[in-house]
User: What shape does this take?
Amino acid sequence: MRKFLSIGITTTLIIILLMGVNELPTFGEYDNPANNEVAHYYIEKATEDTGAMNIVTGIILDYRAFDTFVESSVLFTASIIVLLLLKKEKNSQDTEIDETIIQSTILKEVSKVIIPCIQIFGAYIIFYGHLSPGGGFAGGTIIGTSLILYRIIYGKKFTDKLLPYSRLIRYLCGSIMFYGLLKGYSFITGGNHLALPQPSLGTPGNILSGGFLLPLNILVGLIVAITIYFFFTLFDGGEI
Amino acid sequence: MKSIESFPLIIILILFVSAFSMPLIKKIKIVKGISLVSMSLAMILALINLIYVIDKGGYLYRIGHFNAPYGIEFRIGIIEAMMGLLFTFVVLMIIWYSIYSIDKEIKQSKIALYYLLINILIGSLLGVVYSNDLFNCFVFIEVGTLASCGTIIVKDKKENMKATMKYLIMSCLGSGLVLMGIAYLYSMTGHLNMSYIHEELINCYLNYPNAVLIAIGLFIIGLGVKSAMFPLHNWLPDAHSSAPTSSSAILSSLVLKAFVLLLIKILYRVFGMEILEYYSVLNIILILGGLGMIFGSVFAIYQKNIKRVIAYSTVAQMGYIFLGIGIGSNLGVSIAIFHIIGHAVTKSALFLLVGAMIEQTGQKSLEHLKGVGKEMPLTLGLFTICSLSMIGIPILPGFISKWHLSLASIEAGNTVLIGVILLSSLLNAVYYFPIVINGFFGEENLKGKVYKSKSKPLKELMPVIFLVVSMVYVGLESKGIINLISLGFE
Amino acid sequence: MEGLINNYYETGAIILFGIGFAILLLHNNLIKKIIGMNIMDTAIFLFFIAKGYIIGRDAPIIIGAHKGVHGYINPLPSALMLTGIVVAVSTTAFALALTVKLYDGYGTIEVDEIIKMRSD
Assistant: This one.
């Protein structure tokens, strides 16, 4: 009975939504209402206004920077809530039960070469975020994955000495507070039409161009990497 | 002074940045201090902003260096400034109350993270109220959902987990529907700024008759799930009754209201009266609001746990607001916003008082709370004043809302609604009066209770006294407030 | 009907949305419900991103000379959905952490058995 009701509701929903899609403008035409002067302005003026060659990075970190700030705080809030739920207090009398330390030498030796390569690749995507596809989010995920691989291969005790919880949470909170202050400075000077000094736009095509874009990409990458690492360690036993 | 115009943005930034610093601090006293200081600073800035807006009129404030539609902008009118002041004031009182009571409800290690979640929640609610850009509002909705689920989950009990799971899944469904509505609107008009969408939509809504109707429906259902419109309110009693005291107060009095305010903004600023009358969707909201008013009270009568009674009463009161929106005239929407203000102060005071009663006596069900009036006279006295406002006694804000709603429904030519409003007031009395009467009177109830034995000290009840005083003030000054709200329309 | 066939991306996205919604309603296991929620979110992203495409033009990254306004697709939907994907990831992480705690508390992750074990 309940199954029929659910299938009935779903089919009604799909049919109603499809009746709406029937009338929407055709896919892929160049004179759709969505491709109006706003899109043309972004394509033409993005390099002049923001100094970025990747127009999408220019949009998310300059034109609509408030959205990105709130989205970073969504990620931060989610990691705090998962911390609240799953973090276990360190019991010092607990012996090391079910700590599966991988004994394979091949893994350890190969990882000594591969993990730094992964991190360099992630750092490249972050630093070149405004010149080629990528940006802080993609690069941060790659660096976070490399930290997870490190923890799987070398085990909990070894990694905890290298990346203790207190240091990681200090970096996380510090970088998102710095992001808020940096962006707050940019917003308030913009909203009040003040002409206070801003980082220069530089020549498009260099790394050190784009004003705020490079520092913001780095901060976002740091936030995402630490959040992804926290997610893995908290789901995998809850002790950091 | 032009710099007062940036105060809304500064409020949101202060709340977020002070929240980000809280996990680093080890001492709990400093965390409580930071929370109080940041919220009082936010309230003072909101007050100055409101005085500025009443003087000089509403304005648009751009965020960053680019004007709309290329960038994001805030639109601050009288209604938004009043909501800013209301939210910060109520939360300041709730945080003040919670400084004394939160140690008994959750573990010591989680208190810092709890205050972080409260700050982020209020920051996101203010962002929903102030913003003039649809996608920006959507991202703020997401932060608000996550933070409010977080404030329920701090208490580590099993029924909290179950209630939060239901709340989370239904909220995500609602957000998904809202995002699909934004996608439909974007593909028809190409803008994300509310004023620009309105201009485009007026020109071309006849080309897409079905799609505009579907977009309106998606927004109503999506935001209705989040603000407890009648058939979609199932998550509310579990979530609000199992949360810690201060969380239930914030959730019931403020979180639902911000989403209803967003619905009002979308219906009246993005779509506008012309499109709404062409499709006559406001009648559906009217019917659902009326049903919510009656069934919320009917369900409340059968509950045994006092917190669930008050949670169902919230569903009924949200029905009044939807009735006001559904009537569709200027007076109807003004009364809906006035009811938001009145209900916020009343319901938060009610939840804090009930929390005090549960904490001191250790009992939750109505059976065991009989005779509590002798043990905690001040608490139950304040509870009586608030419940009189809910029922609809003159001078208090509940009566003013019901009176003006009846006037608005006569003006719209729909006299059945007056019967519905009267019926729901009677039903409200059926479950509020027994609590008060059993608390104060009745010989077998008062046997064995010692006078003032379980009263809370006066300094811990001060915030509730402030809330009740402000409720009476809102009732007395209602004429002025309703005039101000009507000024905020154009 | 030809509107549906021309907008095949949007039609596919809505059918996917329906499939995800059905999974959310029909299955009892919490992990499958979370997977259904994820499929629904992904369908909405597909719907939105399909709005930006223009036939015959490049991705909005300027390599070498600027091709002018008519050389690139609409960059705005892609930028918005970057935000959307991060939000979906956060919600999924929260829901999965809740599932772990529910399993610790009740011993099962089937929803009808949890509802039966009401006031423990």
Summary: The first helix of chain B runs from residue 7 to 20. Residues 280-490 of chain B form one domain.
